[in-house]
Amino acid sequence: MSTKPYNSALLQRARELRTNATKQENRLWYEFLRVFRPRFTRQRIVGSYILDFYCGKARLAVELDGSQHFEPSAMKYDSVRTEFLNSFGIQVMRFANTDINRSFEGVCDAIAKRVTACIGEQPPPSSDGTPFVREGGKDNPH
After folding, report:
1. 85 by DSSP, 3-state: which?
2. Which end of the chain has the lower number of beta carbons within 10 A, N or C?
3. Residue 120: is it exposed, middle or buried by C-beta count within 10 angstroms (0-12/13-18/19+)?
4. Number of domains present in the structure of the chain
5. Does residue 137 form part of some domain?
């Protein structure tokens, strides 16, 4: 399917989630995804769900999960949500908040590799024109 459903009733909630992002969401956004190309957006509404981060060109959602996501009911909810997104051709990558805290560079690497695989080409340079380069184990957009 090419058209993703949009629930405008969730717009205010998406804004609240952007304003009250977790420390891990802010780190991933401000230190990596904000300047990553192709472009990611935050708190994208698809159907009755709000995605943490979404890259339209790669049709890829990136979700950061706190400890509540490891409860059986939350795991079932996330599974149904992922199936719904997959039905629209959207792949989902899930990371625990602890992954951001313990292996930020590894998370960034995994996202970059998946985007590359999804679009079948190397991502273009960051918004300031410089490629993402690995130096000394750190993400360096310069």
Report:
1. helix
2. N
3. exposed
4. 1
5. no
pTM across the whole model: 0.76
User: Phi and psi of 62, rounded to 5°?
Assistant: -120, 120
In a domain, 13, yes or no: no
pLDDT in tens, the chain (142 residues): 445 666 677 887 778 777 778 999 999 999 999 999 999 999 998 988 989 999 999 999 999 987 665 677 778 888 999 999 999 999 999 999 999 999 999 999 999 999 999 998 665 555 555 444 333 333 333 3
Question: CATH code at 67?
Answer: 3.40.960.10
Whole-number Å distance between alpha carbons of 8 and 12: 8
